[in-house]
Fold this sequence. Notes:
Blueprint: E1 3-4, E2 7-8, E3 24-31, E4 34-41, H1 49-64
Antiparallel strand pairs: 1-2, 3-4
Amino acid sequence: TLYSAGAEVTALYPLGPIFHGSGLNITVMSLADRLNVGIISCPQLVDDLWGLADRFAAELDALLSHC
């Protein structure tokens, strides 16, 4: 169990920065048997961010099938 200032942390909302010259950030954090993924992009460089997000779970399942 994770605590912050005496309160139990029950969820994480990962969000990473976008820097000049970098059009995509994928931040991954885990807590209590959950994997939390935050995806942010520059819309001029990544035109189908929702498509990328929609495929994330299936690709993670494919990766885990090799373990």
